[in-house]
Amino acid sequence: MKRVSIVGGGIIGLCSAYYLAKEGYEVTVFDQSAMDDGCSYGNAGMIVPSHIIPLAQPGMIAQGMKWMFDSQSPFYVKPRLNSDLIKWGLQFYKHANANHVEKAMPALRDLSLLSKELYQDFAKENDSFFYEEKGLLMLYKTDKVADEMFHEAKEAERLGLEVDYLTRAEVAGLEKGTKTDVLGGIHYKSDAHLYPQKFMKFLKKELQRLKVEIHLNTTVQDFIFDKNSIVKIVTDKGSFATDEVVLAAGAWSPTLAKKLNISISILPGKGYSFTLKDKDHKPSIPTILCEGKVAVTPMNNDIRFGGTMEITHTGDTKINQNRLQGIVNSINEFYPEMEVGMPKVEETWFGFRPCTPSGMPIITRDKKVVNLTFATGHAMMGLSLAPATGKIITEIISGKKISVDTKMFQL
Ligand SMILES: Cc1cc2nc3c(=O)[nH]c(=O)nc-3n(C[C@H](O)[C@H](O)[C@H](O)COP(=O)(O)OP(=O)(O)OC[C@H]3O[C@@H](n4cnc5c(N)ncnc54)[C@H](O)[C@@H]3O)c2cc1C
């Protein structure tokens, strides 16, 4: 059977490994880290068919410019005179229009719904990762944001998703875990959530069972070619022969692509989270606090808060206290009973979302390198879209009929 090498052992790499191994491929995963704390671990764990509108959308440039001047805002682009950032910004500008959003929405919906079905299959096998289907509450405090949320919800309904529009009292009736101070909310029934660290643990066990080889702390440095095929993966621990390569290196994907003479535009969108254990009066339903773009997820007895999107570089590992304060302020404004203080630096997690300027993931065969497939660029939805991505990667490599239309997921 063919050997497939996967570069990157985040959720996208591991889901790809899972479906490839099940199909009978001999799979090896390489990761530069110990695979225990990257972007796929401390995220908000939301599975979000509701998120059909990509980040690149009309109005985002104007809103982003306003947020740039507020140190506690949820979105920020670290200004640098850097060609990758300029290219990314120009591409973002090109995609932030109604035409792109109209094409992106059904593509994201179909990929998301497929992923949710695959999560349901995983959850039938094992419930160690606390998969639950409680939907997603979008809570807002202002008329302006209510209008934006209504518009998005109407689009979601047009695409067949089930949505409830809630008054302040109806929000209180649904969210019984804690008091909420809001104008109203929107409940997307389609969404689900899980505990990311526990899901990654489950996946790793499954891969062990399927005899997938995992090389931890092994950095992929280069590729050796025979004509237009990669024949060897070069790492800091030696070289490995291969028949197929999947590039799933998250925010680091452009550096590896450069080694292959391929240019891909992905920048890290740094975000933070912190998790409170055994907190009283905590929310029971996954929620986004819309004005501050803060994600709130109950995970078994824990509660996780996540947010901010700082478009930066992978060397930027500093925890920005102002932005963290922005998250904490939102929590206390929306949940008056919670009384959440600033987490210590050592209790604060950060991760780099792999953000494409179009807001669409890249799930495709390369046009020149015949045995190279990309699985990257999932930005804020990598957990949500991972099983479907893994399944599609397997279908691409094995030449099978592809489950969803991948036109929007090209390089
Ligand atoms: C605060 C926050 C909240 C989020 N909430 C959600 C959510 O609720 N739902 C959702 O769907 N998504 C969410 N996300 C996004 C999600 O976490 C990411 O999209 C996802 O984890 C990306 O997975 P990945 O496998 O592509 O990348 P990663 O998890 O970053 O994995 C890439 C791997 O490649 C490895 N690598 C890189 N270069 C090399 C090399 N040269 N050699 C070997 N290995 C290499 C890295 O070590 C890394 O382990 C959130 C993100 C953040 C930051």
Automatic annotation (TrEMBL):
SUPFAM superfamilies per UniProt: FAD-linked reductases, C-terminal domain, FAD/NAD(P)-binding domain
GO cellular component terms given for this protein: cytoplasm
Keywords: Oxidoreductase
MF term (GO), any: oxidoreductase activity
Gene3D superfamilies reported in the protein's UniProt record: D-Amino Acid Oxidase, subunit A, domain 2, FAD/NAD(P)-binding domain
InterPro entries: FAD-dep_OxRdtase, FAD/NAD-bd_sf
Domain FAD dependent oxidoreductase, chain residue ranges per copy: 4-395
Oxidoreductase among keywords: yes
Leader sequence residues: none
Pfam families noted in UniProt: DAO (PF01266)
PANTHER family from the UniProt entry: GLYCINE OXIDASE, SARCOSINE DEHYDROGENASE-RELATED
Protein name: FAD-dependent oxidoreductase
Organism field: Flavobacterium muglaense
